[in-house]
Specification:
The chain is an alpha/beta fold. It has a seven-stranded mixed β-sheet, with helices on both faces. A four-stranded parallel β-sheet has the order 7-8-6-9, sandwiched between helices. β4, α4 and β5 form a beta-alpha-beta unit. α5 packs across α6 and α6 crosses α11. The chain is elongated. Bound molecules: 6-O-phosphono-beta-D-fructofuranose (F6P). The site of 6-O-phosphono-beta-D-fructofuranose has 9 residues, from loops.
């Protein structure tokens, strides 16, 4: 029986486990022998690879993170390591790979395809939502709900104590998490790499609101701006408010996947296995304007990511 292996790579994201489960089950239903690669690219090199038993993916659908664990392996850049990985796959009879992760992982697997012609299908998964060509990456909805719940709690104490809170969200260089959170959590300020901001205008707007009775405020700042400390000091000094900074950090990566992440995981996973079954070699599963599809890897890696313009418009009033 031909083997299909599934791995998770790069930053973990909620939805990876449902995607692993569905990849295994759908591959099996099409007559493949499913395998699990543990520890991402490092496990591929170190032959941390097991046949997926009938029960190996039960009880994981509700778990956050990835039961296959993940790494960011520098070793995979070396040809000798990739050769070792290829020999490992051959020894198990694995001819196809499903990789659940970000564009860095897809690039690595594309290099592996150039070297050894092992076809792969990529499932986009990162809370940053910054993979070109797809509107959605697994983990985003769970992360947004985690941020929403945290900001709702912060709002309670901010209101009770008449304070300003600056909340820093993850996202690397991408402001998507900050923008979607600022809009849906009712923040007064949003600072992201994608948008210019005007502190004088923000100050004028908020001073009027404070005079009218506002007693607390929330600012959401994307980590990629590096501005969280500065904005916290600025609020304290210019709006004369007691200001606190909360860096949400890795809490945003954890938690049981939401219904949306589970459903998206299943749809991406079926699409990935079907893509390999059709004989496609280097495709990434994407979701664009409400439709699922595939894109050749070069269309993903050669394009710059942009955030949904309608979300940007919703955020603009929070930047001035
Ligand atoms: O890419 C996901 C992400 O959580 C980013 O939002 C963040 O900048 C980075 O990973 C953190 O990386 P690490 O887990 O290695 O600290």
């Amino acid at each position: 029986m031909e083997g299909i292996a599934v791995m998770t790579s790069g930053g973990d994201a909620a939805g990876m486990n449902p995607a692993v489960k569905c990849t295994v089950e759908h591959s099996r239903s099409l007559g493949y022998e499913p395998y699990l690669i543990y520890d991402g690219l490092r496990g591929l090199i170190d032959n941390n690879i097991e046949k997926a038993g009938n029960r190996s993916t039960s009880g994981i659908i509700n778990r956050g993170g990835t039961v296959l664990r993940s790494t960011r392996s520098e070793r995979f850049f070396k040809y000798e390591s990739r050769k070792q990985a290829y020999e490992n796959l051959q020894s198990h009879g694995i001819n196809k790979l499903v990789v659940i992760g970000g564009d860095g992982s897809f690039r690595a697997l594309n290099q592996f395809y150039s070297d050894f012609k092992v076809p792969f299908a990529g499932i986009p998964a990162t809370i940053d939502n910054d993979i070109p060509g797809t509107d959605y990456c697994l983990g985003v909805d769970t992360a947004l709900n985690m941020i929403r719940s945290s900001v709702d709690s912060i709002r309670d104490t901010a209101n009770s104590f008449s304070r300003a809170f600056v909340v820093e969200t993850m996202g690397r260089d991408c402001g998507y998490l900050a923008m979607a959170s600022a809009v849906t959590c009712g923040a007064e300020i949003c600072i992201v790499p994608e948008l210019d901001y005007d502190l004088d205008k923000i100050g004028e707007r908020l001073r009027i609101q404070l005079e009218e009775g506002r007693n607390f405020l929330i600012a959401i700042v994307a980590e990629g701006t590096g501005m969280s400390d500065y904005i916290t000091r600025w609020v304290g000094d210019n709006l004369k408010m007691d200001a606190r900074l909360t860096i949400l950090g890795h809490i945003q990566r954890g938690g049981s996947p939401t219904v949306r992440d589970r459903l998206m995981a299943f749809k991406f996973a079926v699409a990935a296995v079907e893509s390999l079954h059709r004989g496609e070699t280097c495709n990434i599963m994407v979701y664009r304007s409400g439709n699922f599809g595939t894109l050749p890897i070069h269309k993903v890696t050669d394009t710059a990511h942009t955030v949904d313009p309608s979300l940007i418009e919703l955020c603009k009033p929070l930047c001035r």
